[in-house]
Write a structure and sequence with these properties.
The protein is of the alpha/beta class. 38% of the residues lie in helices and 23% in strands.
């Protein structure tokens, strides 16, 4: 993977987006230089509907910033609907996008199997559907765009085994209705086969409520159950776990793995509070999704997209998929992967 091509990020120019969002701001807007393939895209205006489960997470705000800028660069308008972590709201908002006659629909599902009926309506109107980052299950979708979640789990477990090949591992994942957590769990357990590292706790953080992960970790520590390593569903869960450990005043180092390379967690990496985060090339994912959306809207079949590299069964059909490779980030390579690529600045990462 050529990181210099992934991250050529500059300040986003303002542009017209119909944007309904529970948050007043989605962070510092940024744009990216478009890929050479964008020159082949018809510049006729299309409208993309983007249904996102929440914008309360740093990761999704960052994805959306890049997506919006890239869509703008290829002449597309975007209607964004933020469901605020509510399944029923997301279903209503998807129906709203269908009623607006969007040319293509992108969904980041709150619950993986909750959109079957509403997406039938989209398909009846011949609106192509892209499932973004999380697999939408038991529904008729055209394309799945994601970073390989199974590989994320494999990398987490591999990095932990390098440092703690035996002992007890706790796994505090995200919600069970996020299908990525199932893929990560399966990959972690497969990677641990034959090792002397044993899983002593599996906990699902319902609704990505980080306070639940914090409380569970506090309870385990108060019972003097101290693991050698912890795998966290994402970096925000890892923050909750680190807080609980700090408050326990437990002095032995616990290997902690998360994902998303959030800025606070990159700071934890350099200070030694967190061992590894899995960087997911979200800039490239967001860009490729925007290009794919335009092509589908213009009539290209998903299976004919040049970047398709997998086919995944979602419980309803075999879905053409584009899977990007995640990268483990530790203290040894954080400068190269995070700083030199422009994902975070040196000043942010090494903040005193």
């Amino acid at each position: 993977m050529n990181l210099s091509n992934i991250f050529q990020v500059k300040k986003q120019i303002s542009f017209l987006v119909i944007f309904a969002c529970l948050l007043g701001s989605c962070g510092n807007s940024k744009t990216v230089q478009k890929k050479d393939v964008s020159a082949t895209i018809d510049k006729d205006k299309i409208t993309i509907g983007f249904s996102i489960d929440t914008l309360a997470i740093e990761r999704w705000r960052r994805d959306l910033d890049v997506f919006l800028a890239t869509a703008k660069s290829v002449g597309a308008d975007v209607i964004v609907q933020n469901a605020g972590n509510e399944v029923s709201v997301q279903i209503r908002q998807i129906q709203y996008l269908i009623d607006k006659n969007v040319d293509v629909l992108i969904v980041l599902p709150k619950k993986s199997d909750s959109l079957t009926d509403v997406l039938k309506i989209a398909k009846a109107k011949k609106i192509p559907v892209i499932s973004y980052d999380r697999l939408t299950r038991n529904a008729d979708i055209d394309l799945y765009m994601t970073v390989d979640s199974a590989k994320v789990g494999e990398e987490m477990a591999t990095e932990i085994l390098k440092r703690r090949p035996y002992g007890t591992l706790y796994c505090l994942y995200g919600p069970l209705d996020d299908y990525n957590m199932i893929l990560i769990k399966e990959a972690v357990e497969k990677t641990l086969l034959g090792s002397q590292l044993r899983i002593g706790e599996i906990f699902y953080t319902d609704n990505w409520n980080y306070d639940l992960a914090y409380k569970r970790m506090k309870q385990l520590l108060s019972d003097r159950q101290f693991p050698n390593a912890i795998i966290c569903g994402n970096d925000a869960v890892a923050n909750s776990i680190i807080q609980a450990i700090n408050e326990s005043k437990y002095s032995e180092q616990i290997i902690i793995a998360g994902q998303d390379a959030d800025i606070v967690n990159c700071q934890h990496i350099v200070t030694g509070k967190q061992t590894v985060t899995i960087y997911k090339p979200i800039t490239e994912l967001s860009k490729q999704t925007a290009y794919a959306a335009v092509r589908l809207a213009k009539g290209t079949a998903a299976k004919d997209l040049e970047d398709v590299n997998a086919v995944i069964f979602n419980g309803s059909s075999e879905v053409p998929s584009i899977l990007l490779e995640p990268i483990p980030v530790t203290k040894d390579n954080i400068d190269e992967i995070i700083i030199e690529s422009g994902f975070h600045t040196r000043e942010e990462v090494y903040r005193k």
